[in-house]
Design goal:
This protein has 211 residues and is of the alpha+beta class. It has one domain. It contains 3 helices and 9 strands. β4 and β5 form a beta hairpin. The longest helix has 22 residues.
Amino acid sequence: MNHRRLAPLLLLLASAGAGAADDLLLPAGQEVAGASQSQWSRKWWQWALSFDAEASPVADRTGAACRAGQQGPVWFLAGGFGDARISRECTVPAGKFLFFPLANYVAMPSEGGAPTCEVMMRDARQITDGASRLVLKIDGQPQPALEAHRVDTRGCFDAGARRSPPENVFPSAGNGYYVMLKPLPPGTHEIEFGAVLPAVTQAITYRLHVH
């Protein structure tokens, strides 16, 4: 094949790959399995807070805990503690939607306190108002317009509902930038995501084997 034909072909393949990645990202207003992404953000926090700190997928540095507590048609990917870049590798069943935060925060009542839901919602919103440098790459393809994926919990919820035994952690409220991906095609994929908040930077890479 001569160079004149090769260059357009490479551009065509690159465009096709970008389009495939773009098609995986759902709009923030789209429901999945009968639940809004606001409701999925509540479920994400209940999942993340259902573990003891040392066993949490959020504390996991390798991906060994990525299957812990997963259930239903949507799988959660975890953020991280601290500012260090985290790389994880794990296997995901085919056909699962993926839901995860670029940056998020949950406000929960302190022991002995009696805050109102309005105060919790305000605190969560104020912390995430300062989010910047939102990043999402799917197999190397940057995803645009991530500011449109800000989601709050639309009221308060019990953050301890999935703990064993359940703990009443109400009123809790969350806010942040979340994304919902359609099920990835079988094979190996790399998801990079993160953001900067005033108090913390998140930079996560998942190498996912889907089958």
